[in-house]
């Protein structure tokens, strides 16, 4: 364990306008060195060496504070109808106790968010959000909808426990019931006197779980108890791994997708059901995009240069015959693949595996080649095991 939070916090310029999670002081205690802001909250982004964090994740297990995945709670007699109106994915077969990865689209078919939906009860849902103000959007949609729904942000804060040892660690903490939780399913628990929901989800492309704390006053207790039991089994404090998520072609909102992108551009057309009878926001626009074809396409690239020292902090132009045809959205060096790998979006007519382009990085032009996505574990077998 590192310095106490009172000592550590003196090194940071934390203001009161950005929210802190219930696990904030525990992450400082356990070595968090740097933070970013996501959904108006601080998120730990550095526990030391990012490459070591990657190896901790893929070889053992890490515990991450992902409270920034704020929840929008949707309750009431018309909750299912309202959720269906927000998303192009058919949720008619989403059972109580089930999770689904969904998209929320605007009237132009643009992606506003790509949350995980949890059906808590028959007329009770959570949207576990990426980085955008969906509670405000949902309140605006509700005003003239005529639907009987209550919206709020509940007192819910998730942790992620991810990695190949995560099941063993979770069973040690929570018991054999962990084996009853199937992929993209969840169960309610009470442990250490704390109400929790545990799901087989996560943002790592590895086997893992999310632990939703339902009492924000118990954050430090929950973190410390999990680490006390998990550390002897290989659990380390950590942060979401850019290396692993790019390997798995997992999209980051505002980096790889935003409201200017539609599902057909970024390989998420499987989350659009135009044949269902229910209306949803953006249905006409997405129907036309499917008919006419998407102008852009997300691709994977291998960048042919010395190992990148850090992930990109700006979008890099992709050049073909002296013409800009797209941009690199996320790039990082993968120590496992021993390659610089990147997610990018380009004009659809240029997208073909094996195509070669140039990338403008600073004042240099670097060669790259388009490859298939994802870069590692293409069938997502690790996460589903």
Structure description:
It contains 10 helices and 21 strands. It has helices at residues 5-8, 24-29, 50-59, 79-86, 134-143, 166-174, 219-230, 242-247, 283-292, 381-384, and strands at residues 34-38, 41-46, 61-65, 71-75, 99-101, 104-105, 111-113, 116-121, 124-128, 150-152, 157-162, 186-191, 194-199, 208-213, 235-237, 296-303, 316-320, 323-334, 339-347, 356-361, 364-371. The radius of gyration is 21 Å and the shape is globular. The strands form 5 sheets. It has a 6-stranded mixed sheet with strand order 12-13-14-11-3-15, sandwiched between helices. 21% of the residues lie in helices and 31% in strands. It has 3 domains: 5-69 and 155-245, Probable tRNA modification gtpase trme, domain 1 (Gyrase A, domain 2); 71-152, Aminomethyltransferase beta-barrel domains (Alpha-Beta Plaits); 295-385, Beta Barrel (Elongation Factor Tu (Ef-tu), domain 3). The longest helix has 12 residues, at 219-230. The two termini are 32 Å apart. It has 385 residues and is α+β, with helices and mostly antiparallel strands.
């Amino acid at each position: 364990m590192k310095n106490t939070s009172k000592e550590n916090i003196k090194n940071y310029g934390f203001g009161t306008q950005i929210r802190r999670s219930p696990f904030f002081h525990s992450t400082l205690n356990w070595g968090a060195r740097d933070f970013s802001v996501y959904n108006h909250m601080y998120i730990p982004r550095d526990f030391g060496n990012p490459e070591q964090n990657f190896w901790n994740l893929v070889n053992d297990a890490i515990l991450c504070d992902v409270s920034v995945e704020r929840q929008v709670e949707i309750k009431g007699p018309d909750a299912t109808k309202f959720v269906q109106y927000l998303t192009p994915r058919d949720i008619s077969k989403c059972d109580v106790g089930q999770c689904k990865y969904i998209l929320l689209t605007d009237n132009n078919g643009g992606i506003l968010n790509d949350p995980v939906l949890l059906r808590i009860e028959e007329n009770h849902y959570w949207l576990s959000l990426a980085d955008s103000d969906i509670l405000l959007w949902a309140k605006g949609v509700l005003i003239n909808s005529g639907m009987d729904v209550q919206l709020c942000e509940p007192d819910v804060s998730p942790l992620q426990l991810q990695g190949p040892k995560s099941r063993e660690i979770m069973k040690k903490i929570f018991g054999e019931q962990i084996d009853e939780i199937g992929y993209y399913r969840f169960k309610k628990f009470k442990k250490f006197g704390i109400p929790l929901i545990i799901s087989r989800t996560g943002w790592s492309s590895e086997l893992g779980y999310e632990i939703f704390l339902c009492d924000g006053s118990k954050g430090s207790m929950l973190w410390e108890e999990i680490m006390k039991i998990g550390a002897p089994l290989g659990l380390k404090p950590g942060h979401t791994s850019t290396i692993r998520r790019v390997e798995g072609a997992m999209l980051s909102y505002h980096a790889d997708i935003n409201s200017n992108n539609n599902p057909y551009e970024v390989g998420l057309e499987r989350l659009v059901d135009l044949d269902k009878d229910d209306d949803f926001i953006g249905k006409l626009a997405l129907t036309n995009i499917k008919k006419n074809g998407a102008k852009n396409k997300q691709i994977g690239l291998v960048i042919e240069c010395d190992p990148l020292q850090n992930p990109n902090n700006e979008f890099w132009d992709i050049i073909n015959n002296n013409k800009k045809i797209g941009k690199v959205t996320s790039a990082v060096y993968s120590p496992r693949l021993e390659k610089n790998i990147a997610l990018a979006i380009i004009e659809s007519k240029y997208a073909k595996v094996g195509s070669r382009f140039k990338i403008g990085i600073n004042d240099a032009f670097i060669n790259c080649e388009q490859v298939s996505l994802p870069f590692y574990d293409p069938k997502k077998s690790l996460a589903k095991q």
